[in-house]
Design brief:
single chain; 64 residues; mainly alpha; 3 helices; elongated
Length: 64
Amino acid sequence: MKRQKMCQKFREMSPAELLVKERDLREDLFRLKFKHGVRQLDNTARLNELRREIARLTTIMNEK
């Protein structure tokens, strides 16, 4: 259910908003990867969640 709401929210965004959201998600992923490398990351599942969210966002951007 959460995934459907997220995809619907992405589809309602303009292309410019999607680019900003993608940049923010990629920055978050970079920070989490860095924390993971330094062994300070508590929730490693968040890495996969962010990667999948970026993939969903990219797919929706390609649809438009």
